[in-house]
Specification:
heterodimer; A: 351 residues; mainly alpha; MetI-like fold; elongated; B: 572 residues; alpha/beta; Rossmann fold; 2 domains; 6-stranded mixed β-sheet; 24% strand
Amino acid sequence: MSAVLENPVGVPTPATRSDGVWSAAARRFRGDRVGVIALLIVAAFLMLVLAAGAGVVARNWQSEIGVPNAPPTFMGAAAKAEQEAIAQPKGPNVDLSAVDPLAPRYKEWAERAAQFKTAEHARADTLPFGADRLGRDVLAKAIKGAEISILVGVSAALLATFIGTVLGSFGGFFGGRVGDVLEWIYNVFTSIPSILLIFAFAAVTGRGVGSVVLILGLTGWTGIYRLVRAEFMKHSVREYVRSAEAIGASSMSRMFRHILPNVSHVVLVQLSIHVVSFIKAEVILSYLGLGVSVDQVSWGTMLAEAQSELILGHWWQLAAATVFMAVFVTAFSLMTDALRDALDPKLRGAE
Amino acid sequence: MLLNVENLRVRFRIGRGHKAVLAPSVGRGDTGVSFQIPENSTVALVGESGSGKSVTAMSILNLLPENAVREGAISFQGRDLLRASADELRSMRGKDIACVFQDPMTSLNPVFTVGQQIVEPLMVHMGMNARQARERALALLNEVGLPDPKRRLDAYPHELSGGQQQRVMIAMAISCEPKLLIADEPTTALDVTIQRQILELLAKLKASHRMSMLFISHDLGVVGEIADRVVVMRQGTVREQGPVADIFSAPKDAYTRALLACRPTLAAPPARLMVIDDHIAGREAENAARVAKPKDPNAPVVLQVRQLNKSFWLRSGVFGRKPFHAVKDVSFDLKRGHTLGIVGESGSGKTTTGLALLRLHEAAGGPMSGEVKFDGRDLLQVPKAQWQPFRRRLQVVFQNPYASLNPRFTIGQTLMEPMTIHGIGENAAAREAKARALLARVGLDDSAWAKYPHEFSGGQRQRIAIARCLTLDPEVLVLDEAVSALDVSVQAQVLNLLKDLQDELGLAYIFISHDLAVVRFIADEVLVMKDGVVVERNGVDALLNNPREEYTRRLLGAVPRGWRMTTPRLTA
């Protein structure tokens, strides 16, 4: 039955230059409306990250342009707090120089101060998305935070996928001693609770974007290793790989020229799944104070700040970071789903 | 009439939305497929892959994919099946009409025991309780001839052989006493000997249960043994139908005649097998006039094998391992331009022998001993570093043409790779010229160059695999069941091609197969293997005319002979 249903038409395929595996996948992807929308959202975020990196937007995220904790514009300015909290003493007026030993120097200081301009620029009472406790624009922070978070997520995922794929292909293809050693390493890594492992690495490497990428990459490769290893074990005994061996192709050629393109859908899907999970992991690390350094901002540090602000009723920083992260992560996950459907060769012909 | 199919047309909706087109699968234009199945009789649908025979059968119970559109009329005992609701159809499936599919390994669920799977339809359709159903299951397994049925009831599918699994599938199919059994290529995935047993079983059950059978096959030889009526299909239409005697003794359609002629027989083989196109073009006489090029009995020996042994390690206990002897003391000589056939059932060690010669087994898998003399060197002693030049001269074609080509390589890349590895040809242009010439030599046109394997049929892919081997100018070619997965008509084309190439290039073949008729056509000398041992070795004519071993006689008896007035028929 399968032989017939593979080509249910029964007509010979036309002799035109036909779709390659990739263009067929692209065609399937285009047919998936949710996937295309998700792809557009992800692309928009990536543009935003590039723009932020190039300094086009959110360059001045550190400048304190609003009053501290300025609320979002649609809420209106916060009511002025009562100024006369301390009651004026009722006694007679006294010459302060009698009690103040510094009084003779005030004049000199005032002259020196007059040489500098200290005019404080006007701080806005409200900002579109509100301000944090220093009066920094939350929107600019969220955009700048996107840059760090997405950069960390993507590079850590690339690193983890690279390690997992290389080790997995060696373990699955060679088996035997090589496989045993790699399995042993894998078991050591997975037997330690992941958050403890991350802390241990963080304690050694310190804070900073580079070390967060390193930590997540070095601890996150295990799942990819396992999947790639299984795929390589399956494919290394397939007849097309045997045929390649029979014509004299080397082990490296069989592994990376023959098998890898055939398991690339697994690798790609794992890559995008890990981007999402590493963005979340970076948030947790920064929230716990093990993430990026204090003069940088990421979605995680915003959430960490939001914790203390929330008690005072200043919810906007939390909202901005959450909305940005939720939109990006959801779009990325949906894109991944669509990507997997489009790339899985087993689904071919089911359209 | 039990089943009446009238002007059935099936089309598949391809693409989405307004761009969808309806591609016809069964029926062309307004002419559809019509045939009837009377009570207590076997009707066979015969045709090549893509002829629409399976789609026709699957549309009876609407087991087609969602995108199928059926038109025409199908009535079963007066009920209109095309208009029956999904619930109505479901209650009929298994109860009135049951199916047996081609591949028993994928048709059985691996996580349930055989017993659980047989019991399920009994409880659903027959309303039995668990105890009754189990007893009935035991009786059924007994009836389909499964040895030791009591123990097999609690076995998982992987513990059974392919033939036993197919018996279980048949037991499930007849468990609810269906009136019609649809058998879709039930023996294609099996060895010839097992095929014979399953055919005998089906014929017996059909008679004892008084049911009708719709038997689908690509092989007229098989059909002739079991069917009462034959419907020959090609490209979605019926070419000819009639009683089996008429089809075999007086075929009216050129295509039917071609199908009959293209199967190799055990009788004295022709120099070339008939292929469909020859028949349609009326070139029978031209073919018959060709004589086989005589083989030179004094040709030099290219490969000399002495006492070849190969074992695999089996785990036993916690740390222990013990050897399993897959091949024991195999010896033979292979002469230039000659073909050595290796015949046996699955598990007889024939494939292991072929791969051991090419050292395609992993060294860690188990030890190998003996002597394989090729060009003055013992291949088993050649160190791995010096093995590369020998790779070029010994090549292999595998059984499954769907698996042996890398799906992500274009045909051009596939053909160029071996030459690049071995540095054959002065530059890329010279290599490409050679590869394109070989592509033309195996009968594929130049447009194939940039295509991917999934766009080709099984026969075409096997030709590409052969062309890939030929790019290296090998001296010995191991053909590991190279035509077993192909339709009979395609098989004939590939066999002809192999024979022509041998005449032209003086290749020596080691032809591994379970089908003696195919070996008869191509081989000069035959090794019969059983349980890793060569039980009989002889020239092909001597072996066939005068088999010494009981095992050889059994293999010979299993070859389907088609319909003959003289031979006793299975349906008798």
